[in-house]
């Protein structure tokens, strides 16, 4: 396929706002996770929480969209000049030629969870201020961004659980190649809510310690919140050598189980193979794999099986969820940014919290960050419902 | 506005389940004006392809999505195992969401694991893949009231980029109280369309689609138009009306203002 330029990107997560704190955490191997306990309710886990969201409502003109998820979206867009670059694209191409393709799993459901605690005792009605389209609706994230920037082009939200914001790159690339838009704002935003905290706990998938991806003694995930955005567009005539391009994407379904991966990672393998095929690259061309690596026993075993079958132990690979936690519907875009930083800056990220890599998974798992000069990186994102997506990024030069 | 590129595909199969329109052949006669519309609750068959336990427990969104998609593939004579899918809906399972929110607002917030995985927007896509064995790419989108048009666009660009068939499954179902007051959808409704890159023996029509700012086409029958507006997935009914009457023409579907979607149909 025609490579597309990742023109600007940004991440806000528990390690901080913008790419700088993420880069520092990746290089230093530090984690933003902290403990979270609610006595008697089965919650004894670690989370990646973003400070200050409770105290920063949206501006009055956008109050209809005010919820934790959209606050996080606006805050993230203001970092690294992404909002400014988006406005410049709007002026250049017009508001109808910019598409919005964003991923989320739970959107503003926290607002509904809290509204259910304030129901009218007689009628059961939700409180009068509750506004579904701006908060709870899965689409509210894209609706909010479209209104905040007065955009008039195509838009949608992809919601396929933890693959959501990887699949937005594939969907946006299709819209650009079909000629419907010139530029896509892609990304993902997911914020902490009780549905996911209690939901993952009910499946016994949350760990009582910071998550340890691919560790022989891994015990489960640490849920994080996060937002990541990127501008995707056709590359200009000349690019810096360090510019990052989306080279290919691959999507597949497990056809196996709603909340467990295919044990041999068959769907994961199909997605990785499809991404390589679209990028026109052989397995030997990949220099780094950012694994989905949630740190649940089953996920890492299944993904590791697929990676080993396809790449053997030749390709350095790691999960960076020990730094940010598992940001669910934001993880795909967040980890696309991790790949972009690794390619642009020349390093291979390690895996903080992982003490010793699982010897039963025969891949080259990176515990510590090291300097290198990767040219091509793959990012894996797999979600409940058996939804798989792999992306391949490369340096321009 | 400047000319938007035309996206085009062949429609090889249609599935429709809506209040008073239990299947495509009934709907065809109603949309073509041969039979009168008689309102009735949507009938949602249990998904026969799921294992018995999942079949009994299948929610209304899972039933409407699987039934409308499978009807379209059956109409097209295609094995669902080999076809990519685009699911598009304005809501996930409203009843499950209500039950989860009630639990999370109670003193004991512990939820059931099944309730949790059934809360996902892509739960119907997950069950589809398990039921049919399809390992192909599958998309799950939301664009609120524009979800039908957003799904149609995604399915068309997929057909264009993959040069393979793709099934659009647009569906919605209701919320119970108190969420129903905030998001009123009266019943379940779903449209399945099998889109293919080339004309085949089962092709019904070729469609060409472009972004537009023309006003949205209303259905002439006020009851049918009320259905179109009440259930977001049924915003696609003007396209189905053209297919039912087997005449060349175009319709404008609701998308995201100021954009609409102009669909031109050329029957085979």
Automatic annotation (TrEMBL), chain A:
Keywords carried by this UniProt record: Transferase
GO biological process: fatty acid biosynthetic process
GO molecular function: 3-oxoacyl-[acyl-carrier-protein] synthase activity
Gene3D superfamilies (UniProt xref): 3.40.47.10
Cellular component GO terms, alphabetical: cytosol
Record-linked Pfam families: ketoacyl-synt, Ketoacyl-synt_C
Xref: InterPro entries: Beta-ketoacyl_synthase, Ketoacyl_synth_AS, Ketoacyl_synth_C, Ketoacyl_synth_N, PKS_Beta-ketoAc_synthase_dom, Thiolase-like
Domain Ketosynthase family 3 (KS3): 1-395
Family: Belongs to the thiolase-like superfamily. Beta-ketoacyl-ACP synthases family.
NCBIfam families, per database record: PRK09185.1 (NF006618)
Cross-referenced PANTHER family: BETA-KETOACYL SYNTHASE, POLYKETIDE SYNTHASE-RELATED
The protein's name: Beta-ketoacyl-[acyl-carrier-protein] synthase family protein
Automatic annotation (TrEMBL), chain B:
Domain Beta-ketoacyl synthase-like N-terminal: 41-202
Any one Gene Ontology molecular-function term assigned to this protein's record: acyltransferase activity
Chain ranges passing through the membrane: none
Cross-referenced Pfam families: Ketoacyl-synt_2
Superkingdom per UniProt: Bacteria
Name used for this protein in its record: Beta-ketoacyl synthase chain length factor
């Amino acid at each position: 396929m025609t490579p597309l330029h990742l023109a600007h990107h940004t991440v806000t997560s528990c390690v901080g706002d913008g790419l700088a704190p993420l880069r520092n955490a990746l290089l230093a191997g530090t984690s933003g996770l902290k403990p979270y306990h609610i006595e008697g309710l089965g919650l004894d886990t670690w989370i990646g929480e973003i400070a200050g969201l409770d105290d920063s409502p949206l501006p009055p003109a956008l109050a209809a969209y005010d919820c934790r998820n959209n606050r996080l979206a606006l805050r993230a867009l203001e970092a690294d000049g992404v909002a400014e670059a988006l406005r410049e694209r709007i002026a250049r191409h017009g508001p109808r030629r910019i598409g919005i393709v964003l991923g989320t799993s739970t959107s503003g459901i926290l607002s509904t969870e809290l509204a259910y605690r304030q129901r009218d005792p007689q009628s059961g009605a939700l409180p009068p201020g509750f506004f579904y389209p701006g908060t709870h609706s899965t689409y509210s994230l894209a609706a909010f961004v479209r209104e905040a920037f007065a955009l008039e082009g195509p838009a949608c939200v992809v919601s396929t659980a933890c693959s959501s914001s990887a699949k937005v790159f594939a969907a946006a690339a299709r819209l650009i190649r079909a000629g419907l838009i010139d530029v896509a704002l892609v990304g993902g935003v997911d914020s902490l809510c009780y549905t996911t905290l209690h939901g993952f706990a009910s499946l016994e998938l949350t760990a009582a310690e910071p998550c340890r991806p691919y560790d022989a003694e891994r015990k489960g995930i640490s849920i994080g919140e996060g937002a990541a955005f990127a501008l995707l567009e056709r590359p200009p005539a000349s690019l810096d050598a360090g510019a990052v391009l989306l080279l290919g994407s691959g999507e597949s379904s497990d056809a196996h189980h709603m909340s467990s991966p295919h044990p041999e990672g068959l769907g994961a393998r199909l997605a990785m193979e499809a991404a390589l095929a679209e990028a026109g690259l052989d397995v030997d061309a990949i220099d780094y794999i950012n694994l989905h690596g949630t740190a649940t026993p089953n996920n890492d075993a299944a993904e590791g099986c697929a990676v080993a079958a396809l790449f053997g132990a030749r390709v350095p690979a790691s999960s960076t969820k020990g730094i940010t936690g598992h940001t669910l519907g934001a993880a795909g875009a967040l980890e696309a940014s991790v790949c972009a930083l690794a390619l642009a800056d020349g390093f291979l990220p390690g895996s903080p919290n992982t003490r010793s890599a699982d010897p039963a998974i025969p891949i080259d798992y990176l515990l510590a960050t090291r300097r290198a000069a990767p040219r091509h990186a793959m990012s894996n994102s797999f979600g409940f419902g058996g939804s798989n997506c792999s992306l391949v990024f490369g340096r321009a030069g | 506005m400047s000319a938007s590129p035309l996206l085009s595909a062949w429609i090889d199969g249609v599935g429709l389940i809506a209040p008073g329109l239990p299947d495509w052949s009934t709907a065809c006669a109603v949309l073509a004006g041969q039979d009168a519309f008689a309102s009735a609750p949507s009938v949602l068959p249990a998904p026969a392809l799921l294992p018995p336990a999942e079949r009994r427990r299948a929610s209304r969104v899972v039933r409407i999505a699987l039934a409308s998609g499978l009807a379209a593939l059956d109409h097209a004579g295609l094995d669902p195992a080999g076809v990519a899918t685009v699911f598009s809906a304005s809501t996930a399972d409203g009843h499950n969401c209500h039950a989860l929110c009630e639990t999370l607002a109670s003193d004991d917030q512990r939820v059931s694991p099944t309730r949790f995985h059934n809360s996902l927007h892509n739960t119907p896509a997950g069950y589809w893949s398990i039921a049919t064995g399809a390992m192909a790419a599958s998309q799950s989108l939301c664009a609120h009231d524009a979800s039908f048009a957003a799904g149609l666009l995604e399915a068309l660009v997929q057909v264009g980029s993959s040069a393979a068939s793709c099934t659009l499954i647009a569906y919605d179902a209701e919320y119970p109280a108190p969420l129903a007051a905030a998001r009123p959808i009266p019943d379940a409704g779903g449209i399945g369309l099998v889109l293919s890159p080339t004309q085949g023996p089962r092709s019904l029509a070729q469609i060409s689609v472009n972004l537009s700012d023309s006003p949205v086409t209303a259905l002439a029958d006020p009851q049918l138009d009320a259905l179109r507006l009440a259930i977001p997935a049924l915003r696609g009914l003007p396209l189905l009306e053209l297919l039912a009457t087997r005449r060349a023409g175009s319709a404008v579907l609701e998308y995201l203002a100021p954009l609409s979607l102009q669909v031109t149909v050329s029957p085979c």
